[in-house]
Amino acid sequence: MASRVHRKRRPLLPSGSLFLLAAAVWYLGHSFWPHRTPARLDAYTQLSLHGRVTKHGPVVGLAQLSALFTGIDNPDPNMASALYYPGDWRQQRLAGKRPPPPGRLCAIMWNDALKVIFVKNVKAAGSTLVTYFKDCAVMGPNDGPFEWRCLRTLNFGNATQVEHLMRVWDDYFVFSFGRNVLVRSLSQFRYLAHFMQPSCTPAWDDYCRDPYVLGDICEVHAQNGSSCCDPLATSVHQYLHAMPQAPCMVTEAGQPAVDFIGRVESFTEDFAELLKQLNARPGAVHLPPPGEEMATININNKCQQGSSSSKGKGRKDKGGGGRAGKARGRRPLHELPASDPCNQMEFYSNEHAHCYQHILSFYDEDVRLLML
Ligand SMILES: *[C@@H]1O[C@H](CO)[C@@H](O)[C@H](O)[C@H]1NC(C)=O
Ligand SMILES: *[C@@H]1O[C@H](CO)[C@@H](O)[C@H](O)[C@H]1NC(C)=O
Predict the structure, then answer these.
(1) Which residues form the pocket of ligand 1, taking CB atoms under 6 Å from any ligand atom?
(2) Which ligand is nearest to the CA of 112?
(3) Are 187 and 175 members of one domain?
(4) Does residue 218 sit in the same domain as residue 69?
(5) Are residues 281 and 264 in the same domain?
(6) Do 240 and 96 fall into the same domain?
(7) Where are the residues of the annotated region Disordered (predicted)?
């Protein structure tokens, strides 16, 4: 209850008569659905929680690791794997059960000189941010001059690092980026499907019922010695990249664990705001505005109400939800022509209509934290 702090409420429906008309048609067409959520969400819905938030403590996954290591003089690094889609959890999945994963681990990166911690959500501008800060472990040939701002990645099995981050969590500036759940799910599926043979990849219509299904498929095939999934795409990789965003932003008690949440949909603006906030701290090492490296980065959800960002990019889908969807049959989403990023809702309407409720249910904690 107390977790809703400092959220900026925005009108859920931007003005614009075309949009309202479309929304009305959509609403009437689907009004038989139980109204689980007070508002209809769509691909344009901006995150309701963003900007400065009040941090309540360490992010849940870090606290879990710390608890695992507490009181043990010589922790075994492999203990961390008990939290990381462990074998018995995967067996339960394959047996048709759907237990929540025991661990809530997310990638955590930090820089002690800058006193920053970045909790990295998958498919939410993570690589773009690392392009700016740099990754201390994989510095490119031209990255030398930026080494001072590179981020180190937490090794989940390293108790020293875990305890260090627990100690500095309150003091350091902790940030994360979030993304519209409906759009992110499409991005997750497209990304994860690239690691699998098309013959093994379910259609979007099936994926959306339970996004962990790709992990299950890779697990079954790994156990069977067959090659459905790229060697990089272990089942753990496929589970991890389907996970919700909230675990990377909240404490064990479900309260915000970060100081700042940026929006992928407003990346340029929010990244500038992040730098401003970081630089405003007393004694902070000054972070310059991004250079050319960021200008070329494709943040692929540029869609704004009233503008189409698909100009000149690949084939354009002019069909409008239903017709386009039907013509495509049940081919997996990743084989479909590049979709108009301003028309992502086609994957939640007509024959894909069930995906709306399934995705919002699967990512319910994200919806409640970020989108209501
Ligand atoms: C754990 O992290 C500390 C601090 O970064 C480092 O000095 C140490 O070598 C690491 N231990 C292992 C086993 O990687
Ligand atoms: C492994 O492969 C065999 C033969 O193709 C199949 O019958 C079996 O169901 C597979 N095992 C699992 C766990 O899917």
Answers:
(1) 158, 160-161
(2) 1
(3) no
(4) no
(5) yes
(6) no
(7) 302-338
Site to probe by mutation for ligand 2, drawn from 216, 221, 224 as the one with most ligand atoms within 8 Å of Cβ, is 224
Q: Are residues 187 and 174 in the same domain?
A: no
Question: How far, in Å, is the centroid of ligand 1 from the Cα of 220?
Answer: 34
Residues 83 and 159 in one domain: yes
- pLDDT tens for the 372 residues of the chain, in order: 344 444 444 444 444 555 555 555 555 444 444 445 456 898 889 999 999 999 999 999 999 999 999 999 899 999 999 999 999 999 999 999 999 999 999 999 999 999 999 999 998 999 999 999 999 999 989 899 999 999 999 999 999 999 999 999 999 999 999 999 999 999 999 999 999 999 999 999 999 999 999 999 999 999 888 889 998 889 999 999 999 999 999 999 999 999 999 999 999 999 999 999 999 999 999 999 998 766 544 444 454 444 333 333 333 333 233 333 333 334 445 544 445 556 788 899 999 999 999 999 999 999 999 999
Atom of ligand 2 nearest to the CA of 224: 1
Ligand number, closest to the Cα atom of 217 = 2
Ligand 1 atom at shortest distance from the alpha carbon of 158: 1
User: How many domains does one find in the chain?
Assistant: 2
**Atom 7 (ligand 2): residue with closest C-alpha?**
224
Pocket of ligand 2 from Cβ distances under 6 Å: 220, 223-224
The most distant pair of C-alpha atoms in the chain lies apart, rounded to whole Å, by 64
**174: containing domain:** 1-10+48-179+246-301
The verdict on 52 and 172 lying in the same domain is yes
> Which residue's C-alpha comes closest to atom 13 of ligand 1?
158
Q: Are residues 213 and 136 in the same domain?
A: no
Does 280 map to a domain?
Answer: yes
Determine the distance separating the centroid of ligand 1 and the alpha carbon of 110, expressed in angstroms: 14
Give a yes or no: residue 321 inside a domain.
yes
